[in-house]
Amino acid sequence: MKRSGSFFAIAFVAILFCILPASASAQQSPPAPLPPTQQGTSTVPAAPQPNANAADFKCPRVADPHRRSPDCNDQDFPLDETLAGGWDVVRRAMKPFGITPTASYIGGLQTNVTGGSHEVWSYAGLLTLAVNIDLDESLRIPGLSAYADFSWGTGSYLAGSLDSPIPTSGLYAPSYYLGQMYLQQKLDRGKLTILAGRLAAGNGFANLPVFSNFVNYGINPNPYSIGANDATFFGPPPGTEWGVQASYAVATGIQIQAGVFNTNINSAFGLNHGTDFALQEGNKGALSIGEIDYQTHRGGSKHKPGQIAVGFLHSNNSFPTLNNGDVLVQSYSGTYVLAQQMIYRPGGPGTTQGATIWGAYSYNNQDLTSPMQHFWAAGASYLGLVPARKNDVVSVGIVGTEASKFGSPLNTERLLELNYQWLHSRYLTITPHGQYLWLNGPPTHKNALVLGIQFGLTL
After folding, report:
1. Can you give the C-alpha Rg of the chain in angstroms?
2. Gap between the Cα atoms of 198 and 399, Å rounded
3. Number of helices (H), then strands (E), in the chain
4. DSSP class of residue 203?
5. Quick count: other Cβ atoms within 10 Å of Cβ 10?
6. Cα–Cα–Cα angle for 146, 262, 338, rounded to 5 degrees
7. Structural domain boundaries of the chain?
8. Mean pLDDT over residues 53-82, rounded?
């Protein structure tokens, strides 16, 4: 099976990169003007709000490839959403050939003001590069495209110094990794989207736009317990899995999606910098996920917008028990429910300023193998709370995990985050934040107050 997986990987890479010159030679017509951007309900791309003009559910920042959802791939963005400079010339030259490069750098500095054995300063940074290629011109297959991304992470891990099971930042991924790499086909006038290749379940499932307002990895981009219980769910960096997923727009505001992913734990941990393409290395079966998304009162409705996602997971892989790693348990099932709802909009219909509340819950039925059997989270975000800063976002949220009775009690934790997302420009956000961690354990396992600042730059 390992040779088979390697063969598929080599074939996919060959198709992906060999079409680049083919795309260029196929171009016959003069460059067309860039179409207008498809923004979210916010007039500022960096404010993560549900998209009101397109059938996407999970794309708050179109130009940012960091943990990019497939819903972003076919959306255009104005070049002033990026730091660009002379880079704009390159993007404009590539656009007629269907090639769209994206890049971003996110960095975060944090320290524990209280808690831990001593004060620690931690910095983590993550550079992400990606390219999406429209293959319609080169292969004459309407709706076909290819996507690939790469990341390079540096820095240290503050949560490890605090013995916190919930990471205070989602940026720690030292070294470089090949990330997602897949073909995408749109059918039925764009209602049906099919992906196949190296995929990240966490990039396409169990997330909401409002989650990207937060710094901690407990809720951004997914409920953390899903990946903590099964690492093959986590997205890159560091890992990806061979898989297939599809989504279908059933009606206005309703989307269903499903995916089947390999369960190679070595691939999930980014072995060989994300190039471990083997299908089986002690694993078996597949991780299957189904989800229904419902987006309410989109566009200029007089009612306030909201979004609900309900999903179900099942894996028939084998997992070591928490109290004896030599004993394996077959399979698990899980579920999650996510929701966000705007509750206050002072400007009335068609405006985006106001308050949105949200909540999340996930559950895993296998307490023998799940470090975090229950997970819950809730919070709120306000766009334009400060009159002079109408595009800034202030957010507060609390995340809670419940450990299995068979595992470590340290996996029960509460994390409260308060942050202010300052939009310096369409391509730069700066987020000062504070987090308080209620840690569960012996007296030496102290609660902690973490302060920090994070910036995100779309290149």
Report:
1. 21
2. 30
3. 8, 16
4. H
5. 11
6. 80
7. 2-27+47-458
8. 73
Going 197 to 201 to 204 to 210, the CA torsion angle's sign is negative
Q: Which two tokens stand for residue 31?
A: 């460059």
Q: What is the mean predicted confidence (pLDDT) over 2-8? A: 40
Q: Could you tell me the CA-to-CA distances from 113 to 119, 121, 163, 360, 412 in Å, in that order? A: 6, 10, 15, 29, 22
Q: Which residues pair with 350 in a beta bridge?
A: none
Across 345-392, where does the E strand assignment appear? 354-364, 372-383
Q: Residue 72 — pLDDT band, cuts 50, 70, 90?
A: confident
Which of 251, 317, 314 is CA-nearest to residue 284?
317
Give the CATH fold of the 2-27+47-458 domain.
Porin (2.40.160)
- Strand, helix or coil for residue 124: strand
Q: Cβ neighbours of residue 274 under 8 Å, at least 6 residues apart?
A: 177, 178, 179, 236, 237, 238, 239, 240, 267
- Side chain identity, residue 67: R
Burial of 374 (0-12, 13-18, 19+ CB in 10 A): middle
CA-to-CA dists, residue 117 to 114, 161, 162, 451, angstroms: 9, 8, 8, 16
Tell me how far the alpha carbon of residue 316 is from its chain's centroid.
24
- Say whether pLDDT at 85 is over 70: no
Q: In sequence order, which residues have a C-beta less than 8 Å from that of residue 45 and are 6 or more positions away?
A: 37, 39, 60, 61, 62, 63, 77, 81, 426
Give the Cα separation of 246 and 291 in Å (integer). Answer: 10
- DSSP of 231-243, one letter per residue? GGGPPSSS--EEE
Place of tokens 């890049």: 103
- In DSSP notation, 407-438 reads S-GGG-EEEEEEEEEEESSSSEEEEEEEEEEE
Q: Is 267 helix (H, G, I), strand (E, B) or coil?
A: helix
pLDDT tens digits, 297-319: 876 678 899 999 999 999 999 99
* 159, two tokens: 């949560």
User: Which band of pLDDT confidence, cut at 50, 70 and 90, is reported for residue 61?
Assistant: confident
**How deeply is 140 buried, as exposed, middle or buried, from its count of CB atoms within 10 A (0-12, 13-18, 19+)?**
exposed
pTM for the model stands at 0.85
By three-state DSSP, how is residue 458 classified? strand
**Which tokens belong to 129?**
């590069």
Cis peptide before 223 (omega within 30 of 0): no
DSSP letter assigned to residue 51:
B
Residue 328 structure tokens: 């394996």
Q: What pLDDT is attached to residue 350? A: 83
In the numeric block, which tokens belong to residue 292? 């229904």
The whole-angstrom separation of Cα 133 and Cα 59 is 18
Average pLDDT, the chain: 85
